[in-house]
Design goal:
There is one protein chain. Strands 1-2 form a two-stranded antiparallel sheet. Helix content is about 50%, strand content about 15%. It contains six helices and two strands; from the N terminus they run ααααααββ. The longest helix is centred in the middle third of the chain and has 19 residues, at about 50-70. Helix 1 packs antiparallel against helix 2. The chain has helices at about 5-15, 30-35, 40, 50-70, 75-85, 95-110, and strands spanning about 115-125, 130-140.
Length: about 140
C-alpha cells in the first residue's frame, strides 16, 4: 500500500465526529488537522521503512502548527535554530522554505482554528499502519 493511501487511511481513522468548525463536543480532531497540515512534509515517506523520520516529522509539524496559530515576535528563525540544534545539523534553506510553506498552508486552510498542540503521539505498526494522537488546547486569551 502506498504512503499516500496510508496517510489517507490514518486521516479517515481520525475523522471528526461533530461540527467541522471545531465547536462543541466532538469537534474537528486535531490529529486529522495535523496530518493534513503536514502532508507536504510527509508525502515522500514510505512506511514502515521511514518510521523514525515520519514520527519526528509529525512531531515537528506540531511545532510548526503552533507557529501558524501563534507566530513568534522574531519570526521563525528562533524555532528553526532550535530544531537544527536538536537535530545536530546545520542551517538548511530548503527545509526552511518547506516549513514556511507548511505554516502558510495552515493559516490558509484553518484560519479560524486557534488550538495549540501540546502533545503528539505517533505509532507506526510493522505493516506501515499509523495512529496519530494529538493533545491540544485553545490558546489563552482568544475568542472562539
Amino acid at each position: 500500500m502506498g504512503n499516500s493511501r496510508r496517510l489517507k487511511r490514518a486521516m479517515k481513522g481520525s475523522r471528526s465526529r461533530g461540527h467541522m468548525d471545531g465547536s462543541g463536543y466532538g469537534g474537528i480532531k486535531m490529529s486529522e488537522v495535523l496530518l493534513d497540515f503536514a502532508e507536504p512534509m510527509l508525502r515522500d515517506f514510505s512506511l514502515p521503512e521511514d518510521r523514525e523520520l515520519f514520527v519526528a516529522t509529525v512531531k515537528i509539524a506540531g511545532l510548526l502548527w503552533n507557529e501558524a496559530v501563534r507566530p513568534r515576535k522574531g519570526g521563525t528563525a528562533e524555532l528553526y535554530a532550535k530544531l537544527y540544534q536538536a537535530a545536530g545539523g546545520t542551517r538548511d534553506p530548503d527545509m526552511e522554505k518547506l516549513c514556511d510553506a507548511v505554516i502558510a498552508r495552515g493559516r490558509l486552510l484553518y484560519p479560524h482554528l486557534d488550538r495549540l498542540i501540546t502533545g503528539v503521539h505517533v505509532t507506526v505498526e510493522g505493516d506501515g499502519e499509523c495512529t496519530v494522537r494529538v493533545i491540544s488546547s485553545v490558546e489563552a486569551g482568544t475568542v472562539s
